[in-house]
Amino acid sequence: MLGRIIEIVENQIIIKLDIDINNQTNLINLHVILEDDSKKIVGEIVNVNQEKMSINIVGEIKDNKFLPGISIKPSFKSKVRIISLEELELMLGKQQQNIGETFIGFSNVYQNYRINVSINELFSNHFAILGNSGSGKSCTVASIFQKLFLSNSKPPLKSSILIFDAYGEYTNAFASLRQYNPSISYKTYTTNTKYADTDIIKIPLWLLDVDDLALLLDVTTPNQLPIIEKTLKLVPILVGDNEEAIKNKNDIIARALEDILLSGQTSTKIRDQIVAILTKFHTNELNLETQIIQPGYVRTLKQCLFIDKSGKFQEIELVTEFVRSFINHDNTISNEKTSSECFYTLKDLEEAMDFALISEGILKSEKVYDLANVLSVRLHALADSESRVYFEYDEYINRNDYVRILFTDKLTNNKAQIVNFNINYVDDRMAKVITKIISKMVFSLSVENNNRGNSPFHIIVEEAHRYIQRDRDIDIIGYNIFERITKEGRKYGVFLGVITQRPSELSDTVISQCSNFIVLRTRHPKDLNYIREMVPNISIEIVQQLKGLQPGNCIAFGSAFKVPVVMHVEFPNPAPNSNNVDLETIWYQ
């Protein structure tokens, strides 16, 4: 018996000690049983002095099961004692690791006590790993997944884990998994186009929809989306130089010219706009040098645009009739294929967007022209930049096959369980776009799967505060893909894992939908306050403990843990390349 209850305030119990505290080992964070007849209430010691002890109620044991939370309070006659091993196992799990469980780490409170958790409870929910730089986040991630594949005799060979690796750290930790079990495969892609030691990330351009291109082109207003929609409708029609494509190009140019000719503007403005369009958009049949043949003479289209001294456009009827000869009035432009069903390049997309601009009569409004033209400029800049390589896929492939190939080990032709995308060599904007596009592709594939949830995906985002933010996606395209995944992903088998040192910069929706948290040392007051406000079932005592945790030590809580667990995660072997620079060795070697 530790003592007797002298005060009960909400979920805190004050004990008058009957023991000599000086003869005891450290009691802080140990669990106790407050027993009264058949009731067993479980509490955690949070404070001790020479005379008194403070205990927070964490749950109760009923029918040989631990039930977290508070449903009843102890009576003053309750006996107070340290929890037994059998009772502790009901709360923290048994020491023997069973099938369907994975080993996480060792308890800091109960020496050498192994923390084994249910794979379903941990990985069938979204989770977050939080902590300051240097607190051991990368090592914790590496250790958790190494243990998942190696601590059990039956590794998860049908798992599909995507890691967006902000610094290229994890290859060292996972590349050797095959040595332990040849059925385990790890695959990596890189954004390093100059010194690529593995496959470069390449995304088929035709698999991008309006929303994807809006992200890629940094759309700033929903008013720009119709131009992208029009572009995607035109690209399968205009791609290539076959007879049908040329006919369609002529039709689009002619319709734009007809609108200008019938606009009622001044002759000079009509001529200037026609010249501007035909300078940029032309075919062999329809251009400024195309000959217009009349009885007795031949003139070029450019010559027919002459304006006399009185300011009159003398040949406007002739030019209009000539332009109309290229318009297909019987059949509007149509194509059986959609943009996702045909192969095309960035240059093809660029041309389609230019034709989309004139087909929408973009020259009629300077404001609309400015909004639309900036997309054309950005697309052109992308097509001429080094980043174009990420969208240069060699041959046509559909989305299902693309995702399948992402998870296929080229060496063995077997399924790769872990696929790492090293996004270290691009700026944050491009890294965010790549991360969102691939995540959305996987999510869409899962949503369309008739056998819902039979092919689950886990998306792990390192430095998540850089890519999963409270950005303007919702204002532009109506949703943020990571928020959609956290709200809807569980029922389709898509789960998100966020790793970050700045949780306060994350999307509130994403962090609020996480069910499990592993929190390492966190000291920034803004982040501590954010964790306290956003994370469910976290006490002031836990928040205070986060400030002083040693690297590799953490507090884990959520659906996989019946009570918050203070533990240390074993150092991974091999470790990720996340060590600090050793200046002493470098400077003085």
N/C terminus separation: 60 Å
Average pLDDT level: 90
Overall structural class, as computed from helix and strand content, comes to alpha/beta
Coarse shape: elongated
Quaternary structure annotation: single chain
Main sheet strand line-up: 9-8-21-20-19-10-18-17-11-16-12-13
> Counting H and I runs of at least 4 residues, what is the number of helices?
20
* Helical proportion, percent range: 25-40%
- Give the DSSP E fraction (strand runs of 2 or more residues): 15-25%
| Quantity of strands, as a count | 21
- Unreliable spans are none
Major beta sheet summary = 12 strands, mixed
- Gyration radius (Cα, Å) is 33 Å
Describe it.
The chain has 589 residues and is α/β, with parallel strands linked by helices. Helices cover 34% and strands 20% of the residues. The chain is built from 20 helices and 21 strands. It has a twelve-stranded mixed β-sheet with strand order 9-8-21-20-19-10-18-17-11-16-12-13. Helix 7 packs across helix 11 and helix 11 (346-359) packs antiparallel against helix 12. The longest helix has 20 residues, at 428-447. The radius of gyration is 33 Å and the shape is elongated.
